[in-house]
Amino acid sequence: MAPRRDPASRRAALRWGLQAEVVAAVFLSLKFYAVLARRYTAAGGEIDLVVRRGRTIAFVEVKARGDFGAAADAIGEEKRRRIMRAISRWCARNPWSESFVLRCDVVLVAPWRWPRHIVDALAMDD
After folding, report:
1. Cβ-contact 85, 45 below 8 angstroms
2. What are phi and psi of 83, to 5 degrees?
3. CA-to-CA distance for 16 and 76, rounded, in angstroms?
């Protein structure tokens, strides 16, 4: 278990994460995705972004770290389960989405680098 961080570093990490979500939303909008929801919370999980392009809805996990490798490593199995629970709840509350292709993407954010969009990065539970 990682040691607890002091309140100031926790606030700084939260700000960095929120900034990364804004960067990811702008980046995806430049790729012609429309943002349907930000920071959707349900069932003990959170979806950072829900975006749509054409007949596809992507549930996007945004991870910001000092480099892309550390950002990718930050998505563990427990985080994936929480995301899937939130996706299940979002779909139940938005039945119109049944006719869309659904997938779970990841956007990795690192300082002074273009974000990296990984399409269909997390397997969706059936």
Report:
1. yes
2. -60, -45
3. 20
Structure confidence by residue, pLDDT tens digits, 20-31: 999 999 999 999
pLDDT, position 22:
94
Nearest-angstrom CA–CA distance, 70 and 98: 34
Alpha helices in 2-122 (DSSP H): 7-30, 68-73, 77-93
Task: Please give the single-letter amino acid code of residue 78.
Answer: E
All structural domains of the chain: 7-122 (3.40.1350.10)
pLDDT at 125 over 70: no
| CA within 13 Å, CB half, 123 | 4
Unique residue bearing structure tokens 């990296």: 116
**pLDDT single digits (tens) 53-76:** 999 999 999 998 888 888 888 888
* Strand 56-64 relative to strand 116-122, pairing: unpaired
